[in-house]
Amino acid sequence: MIKAVNVHKKFGNLHVLKGVSAQIKKGEVIAIIGSSGSGKSTFLRCLNLLEIPDQGNIFIDGMDIVSRSTNLNTIRKDVGMVFQQFNLFPHMSALQNVMLAPVNVKKMNSVSVKNFALELIAKVGLSDKANAYPRQLSGGQQQRVAIARALAMQPKVILFDEPTSALDPEMINEVLTVIQKLAQEGMTMVIVTHEMGFAREVANRVLFFDDGVILEEGTPASIFDNPSQVRTREFLSKIL
User: What integer pLDDT is reported at residue 94 of this predicted model?
Assistant: First the structure.
């Protein structure tokens, strides 16, 4: 589904990604972990060209998205994104937020989109909040609406950039439960997270980023129970 080859990204003199290569299969759930500034969120943002790599290639379903001939809108239809901050439109209800992209970008019929959007809102456990505005929702509820909004475009993959980091602790589980359900349904997902218990439970593979490279990758059991790299052990010892 996703193949990144020798991806580099600089911001001025800061070399954030230093030749990252990775492959993600259809239906896999990949957890990306690492300290702040290690490049994990920048890599995620490169996967839908919110950041443009300075060097390297990224293929999604066989299409080289870095190629100048690639239509950005086509890519973003296929690659959903859920951010730390929920980024809902405050003047729109939950239902309107979920309907917006399919109607405006995909030019779908608003009646059929409404029915589909209501199904997605029910899927994330918010049937009674469809007409509520973001200010009337908790952080966890807003993030679940954001997940429904990403699903509304029927993407091939969803990218999550620390989806629980802006939430109060008691709201984290309600969002993680939705993501876990998507994993069980076979959605391809790449999740930058600080929730190690969640990464262990849901991910097929874990990528440990350090200083702009993937220093180590493997199953959750191998990464969390028996990491091969000293730096991985140091990182985990501080947060587990």
Answer: 97
Q: From CA 82, how far away is CA 232, in angstroms rounded?
A: 26
Inter-axis angle of helices 139-152 and 94-104, nearest 10:
20
Candidates 220, 188, 195, 197; CA nearest to 207 is 220
All residues at 6 or more sequence positions from 209 whose CB lies less than 8 Å from its CB, including other chains: 32, 33, 34, 38, 39, 40, 43, 215
Task: State residue 46 phi and psi, 5-degree precision.
Answer: -70, -25
DSSP string, the chain: -EEEEEEEEEETTEEEEEEEEEEE-TT-EEEEE--TTSSHHHHHHHTTTSS--SEEEEEETTEETTSTTS-HHHHHHHEEEE-SS----TTS-HHHHHHHHHHHTS---HHHHHHHHHHHHHHTT-GGGTT--GGGS-HHHHHHHHHHHHHHT--SEEEEESTTTTS-HHHHHHHHHHHHHHHHTT-EEEEE-S-HHHHHHH-SEEEEEETTEEEEEE-HHHHHHS-SSHHHHHHHHHH-
Tokens found for residue 75: 């890519």
**CA distances in angstroms from 84 to 60, 79, 145, 159, 184, listed in the order given:** 23, 17, 13, 11, 23
Q: Give the pTM.
A: 0.93
Contact between 205 and 217 (Cβ < 8 Å): yes
Query: What is the spatial distance between Cα 18 and Cα 177, in angstroms, rounded to a whole number?
Result: 34
pLDDT digits (tens, 9 = 90+) for 110-134: 888 999 999 999 999 999 999 999 9
